[in-house]
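Key idea: predict the complex, not the pieces.
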Amino acid sequence: MSSAQIEIQLIASLVAVACAIPGVFLVLRKMALISDAISHSILPGLVIGFFITHDLNSPLLILMGALSGILTVVLVEYIQKTKLVKEDTAIGLVFPALFSIGVLLIAKNANDIHLDVDAVLLGELAFAPFDRLLINGIDIGPKSLWLIGTILLITLSLLIAFFKELKVSTFDPGLATALGFSPIVIHYGLMSVASITTVGAFDAVGAILVVALMIAPAATAYLLTNDLKKMLIYAVLFGMFSAISGYWLAHYLDASISGSMITMLGFVFFLVYLFAPNSGLIAVLYRNRQQQKEVQLLTFLLHLNNHKEKRERHINHLNEHINWHKVKAKSIVELADKNNLIFIDNNIISLTEKGKTFTEKAIDYIITNDDSEIESMKKDFFLFRG
Amino acid sequence: MDLQEYLKLVFSDYTLRTITIGTAILGAICGMLGSFAVLRKQSLLGDAISHASLPGIAIAFLITGTKDTNVLLIGALISGLIGAFWIRSIVKNTHLKTDTALGLILSIFFGFGMLLLTFIQKQPNANQSGLDKFLFGQAATLLIEDVWFMAIVTAICLAVLLLFWKEFKLLLFDVDYAKTLGFNIKFIDALITSFIVLAIVLGLQTVGVVLMSAMLLAPAAAARQWTNSLSTMVVLAAIFGSVAGVVGTGISASQANLSTGPVIVLVAAVFVVFSFIFSPSRGLLFSQIRFLKNRRDLQLHKTLSFMFDLVKTHEDKSHPHAIKILNNFQGYTKGTLKKLEEKKYIKLSGRMWSMTEEGYQFAGNLYNQNIEK
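Result:
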């Protein structure tokens, strides 16, 4: 590994961490799409900043970019307050307009700027190590590393200083107001951090990747935990993992580094989305199926309980009466049999003692609708689950 | 080239005519379907889907190796649909909210698309130039076949829209009722989502991935301000959309270095701002005027009811009182007294005022809700 490669991976990881932290709060506050809006609408700010200073590395650019990011938030909230359109429409109207202004400003003055639109969308991480920060002629590392490092440091210290406030105002704005700190201040603070991070990161990784780095790690972490601290840690880890593995994917495919990083983020999200223990797709579908089976079993047992006459309890009769297909009926009967809830004598099904107690308890449960009872009941009676 | 020349050219110049008709049709279909997106609070679905269509374009190129627009657009359609239905599945099966799902799919698909595009660019058989026109769109590449294709798709959409009009309307405004009536909600829902994806894919070539969502939203949001009826809104949005398309094309053609997509978006944004301010029933201007008028009326009525309280203790209702008495009451000015006189509620003579019979009647009923004004 050359030193340039190490530097690229370092920058990518720092960017990922700096984005993941505000991202967690954006996702929790249901404002994920604000990051999309900000990432587009910083463009006119950057371009105007460039017109003033004619220097792509001027801090004024970051300031102007962050300001136009905050302007987006203010505009969106203003439009929303007029009640003429809903919030999402407000977002969808503001940022394309600002982005268009930025694109046109670049297009009209494109000849003397090397700020081209592709670079805005994609960034070019591969070039980051070539742009070095020199102090008194001594090379102390790539500029983007210092820039994003500073932003990350600020974000981290703000996070530690205001963790409690952030937590309360995210989950209970009413309580936050009652405790005496304004959710509005926290809101704009968070928005400012998001804007500055976006501007700082987009130079290296482009506007779209910033959105991915903010939302994807947070969303992935949210599928795995409900604990805020754990969610932050997971998000940071997912971000760093995707940054580094994304770099090597890009290296191998000879493709865009930022594109590969997002692809890795997407891949990780997809895996967690499928296999997360509680909220993953497979777990959810399995649980749904099992609940369905439990309900069916209960219906079946109640039917047996209700009918003393043999005609109603004949095995073939079940198909028509409860209207189940043969396969389904068979599997339910087997399940009940395995659990010793029924016995079959000459194709006539009857409840065992255990089955009777279970059914009676189930009826009790249905009448009282006491949620705590059902779980212990399942434990007591089910040996085999479907 | 100024606008007049442009208009002349539209009728004589083949390319310009093609582009103008193309953007007009695009604006119409976007406005039409965008209305549904806006009313269903799915405004940002358009943004997500347009980004999600990018990997489809790249994969279609990787598989077929052609740059035939229709093939690429089919790729875009497929990946857009996958994106749209994945978003729905995330929202349905996990506790992630809609905005997170939208942002997630948007950025991940787009990033994957960019990975593929840069991968294609590095391939030796460099037939790929022009793929990135889908990012920002290039109206200039529209061919007459493309325009025909767009027209046919628009016609089909329109026909289906008319056919299922009642169902769509029900779905928009009362899903539960539609369910109880036995409509197949899932089917109608999937139908409208697919149409929105289709409209987006059609616009990719002209306006591009990044700005497509505005094309979908802006005409609809503008149209919403002028009417409360769905059919009027859809028609208005279609008109706004096509006018924005034509005017935007005109402006960008009349100057060098102005790409069509952003100009169309900005023209549409101007429509939105205009509608937000000047629409008679919802607009900011008129509601401000109504607000001020109400406040003025309130002041007037307060003064009048204060006078009424004074007068009702007297035998002679038209007995003159000194204006000075009113000094105890903060709400009156010379202007309000004049207004009251104009309305013939009081008479002024010198420094005295007296209440008329009409004014007495009116003031007596002022806070009585049962009486019509």
